């Protein structure tokens, strides 16, 4: 039953994306590219390439190749690392920051769609359970 409900959530999300993300500035990304951007976005400061590779559970050369791809698309930039001159830090560009901000609106729409079908207590419980399950 959980498997079926997770599939339904995925279809629900896909429907909302189709309807509300027509002018998505970063919508032509692969899931993997998007995942890299989210890891970079959630880092408290520009992330070291080594840490990015570790967080993505890939080799450093794989992370380097993806960062180069995202740089070519104008979504990330590499900056010198103050602590280690041999290392680089990766940060989002303004274009990526704006695009991710616009995309977060879609999740807000999805959240409201779910919340209107639940009581306040049920929505709170769902949020608590998801937080616990996704740690």
What does this entry look like structurally?
With 135 residues, the protein is mainly alpha-helical. The chain has six helices and three strands. The chain has helices at residues 2-20, 31-42, 49-56, 60-72, 94-115, 120-133, and strands at residues 47-48, 76-80, 88-92. Strands 1-3-2 form a three-stranded antiparallel beta sheet. Strand 2 (76-80) and strand 3 form a beta hairpin. Helix 1 (2-20) packs across helix 5 (94-115) and helix 3 (49-56) packs across helix 4 (60-72). The mean pLDDT is 89.
Low-confidence stretches: none
Could you describe the largest sheet, including whether it forms a barrel? 3 strands, antiparallel
Strand order of the largest sheet: 1-3-2
Terminal Cα separation, in Å? 21 Å
Average pLDDT confidence is 89
H/E element order: HHEHHEEHH
Give the amount of beta strand, in percent. Answer: 5-15%
Radius of gyration: 18 Å
Helix/strand/pairing category: mainly alpha
Helix amount: 55-70%
Shape: elongated
Q: Output the number of helix runs.
A: 6
For the secondary structure, the number of strands is 3
Which terms summarize this structure?
3 strands, 65% helix
Brief characterization of the structure:
Helices cover 65% and strands 9% of the residues.
